[in-house]
Every structure is written in C-alpha cells, then in structure tokens.
Amino acid sequence: MKCPKCNDEMTKGIFAPSVGVVGMEWTDKLEYSKWKFEKVNKIKTFQYACQKCGYIETYLDLKKE
C-alpha cells in the first residue's frame, strides 16, 4: 500500500498496549491472540503506517473468522 501523503510504502500493523507504560505502541507483529483486549472488542482494527512520514490509517478488520 502506498502512503497518500508521501507515496512511500506503508507497513500493516496494530496498536498494542505498551508493557509497563500507559499508552499504546505500533507494531507490525500481527499477533492479536496474545492481547487481553481482543476478548472485549467484537471488531478488530489494523493500521497501515508510513515509516517515512509517520502517517497512519486505521481500518476495521471485517473479515469473518
């Protein structure tokens, strides 16, 4: 996927809770099952992040499991 801001490549990932820190961090390791909040959310999300300019887009993961 190309970044709409700078036209560089974007990487798919998710926001995950930081260990021992308040807040979230972005990771391209798509391992939903190890995060406790997955059990609460009915619809998962994923993001595409541009490593060049920092632009992030969020999408709902609407596929049926």
Task: Summarize the structure in words.
The chain has no helices and four strands. By secondary structure, the protein is an all-beta fold. The protein has one domain. Strands 2-1-3-4 form a four-stranded antiparallel β-sheet, with no helix packed on it. β3 and β4 form a beta hairpin. The radius of gyration is 13 Å and the shape is flat. The two termini are 24 Å apart.
Provide a compact summary of the structure.
0% of the residues lie in helices and 38% in strands. The chain is mainly beta and 65 residues long.
Can you give keywords for this protein?
flat, 65 residues, mainly beta
Strand content: 35-45%
How many domain units? 1
The total count of strands amounts to 4
Radius of gyration: 13 Å
User: Percentage of helical residues?
Assistant: under 10%
- Compute the average pLDDT: 76
Contiguous uncertain segments of 5+ residues:
37-41
First-last Cα distance: 24 Å
Output the helix-strand order.
Answer: EEEE
Largest sheet: 4 strands, antiparallel
> Based on the structure, what is the oligomeric state of the protein chains?
single chain
- What's the helix count? 0
List the strand order in the largest sheet: 2-1-3-4
- The computed structural class is mainly beta
Shape, per Cα inertia axes: flat
